[in-house]
TrEMBL record:
InterPro entries: Thioredoxin-like_fold (IPR012336), Thioredoxin-like_sf (IPR036249), Thioredoxin_domain (IPR013766). The lineage of its organism: Bacteria, Bacillati, Actinomycetota, Actinomycetes, Micrococcales. Keywords: Disulfide bond, Isomerase, Oxidoreductase, Redox-active center, Signal. Pfam families: Thioredoxin_4 (PF13462). It comes from Microbacterium marinum. This is Protein-disulfide isomerase. One of its GO terms (molecular function) is oxidoreductase activity. Gene3D superfamilies: Glutaredoxin. Residues 24-209 form the Thioredoxin domain. Belongs to the thioredoxin family. DsbA subfamily.
Length: 214
């Protein structure tokens, strides 16, 4: 990855921030048995075991910075496979018209054990639907069909208020944890302040023992 690309990614993260946060967000619910920075029902894409470092990403599927980071994150997941837990949490920004629709599609797919496939599809197609000011819920439904999901169950999940509540639990936790933009990463429960990509890889190297402790 060139320095120019890294600079653009970091600039996007800095530029896309959510500033209209409630003054007193509710503290996260108890997460006994959950990985650091996650809930027991969080989506764990890579499971290296409870003793491995845990990287949590709060994301918005419509966020351009998240879309730009997606291939970077996928590369890091491959590089650190077996050494870290990787967890995805929702943080749909209100300024993005289809961010909640996308999160609902992902959560409905998760109920059929296809979260990762929908997660990938949403980011890979983001340029086709992102930043539009009309609902793309039907497009997301077509993705579910392509994935071979039970469409009656998918439709019921999207319409169920409990599905949106599940998304909002992540959003509320993110607010409490001072997530102000996406993507935001936490490593073992500690928020990472990223100015360049190496800040993330250095933290992962240190956590996995690939670099000497500072």
């Amino acid at each position: 990855m060139t320095i120019a690309v890294v600079v653009v990614l970091v600039a996007l993260v800095a530029a896309i921030a959510f500033i209209n946060r409630p003054e007193a967000p509710t503290p996260p619910a108890a997460t006994d048995g959950a990985l650091p920075g996650a809930r027991a029902n969080s989506h764990v894409l890579d499971d290296a075991g409870p003793d491995a470092p845990t990287l949590v990403e709060f994301l918005d599927f419509e966020c351009e910075a998240c879309g730009a980071f997606y291939p970077v994150v996928e590369q890091l997941r491959e590089e650190y496979a077996g050494d870290i837990n990787f967890v995805v949490r929702y943080f749909p920004l209100p300024g993005h018209f289809n961010s909640m629709n996308a999160a609902l599609a992902a959560e409905a797919a998760a109920q059929q054990d296809e979260f990762e496939a929908m997660h990938s599809r949403l980011f890979e197609t983001q340029a086709e639907w992102g930043e539009l000011r009309e609902s793309r819920a039907e497009l997301f439904r077509s993705y579910a069909e392509d994935l071979g999901l039970d469409m009656d169950a998918y439709d019921a999940a999207v319409a169920d208020p409990a599905t949106q509540q599940r998304v909002e639990e992540d959003f509320n936790d993110g607010q409490y944890l001072n997530v102000t933009g996406t993507p935001t990463f936490f490593l073992d429960g500690e928020k990472l302040e990223l100015e360049q990509l190496s800040d993330l890889t250095d933290a992962l190297d240190q956590a996995t023992g690939r670099a000497p402790q500072q």
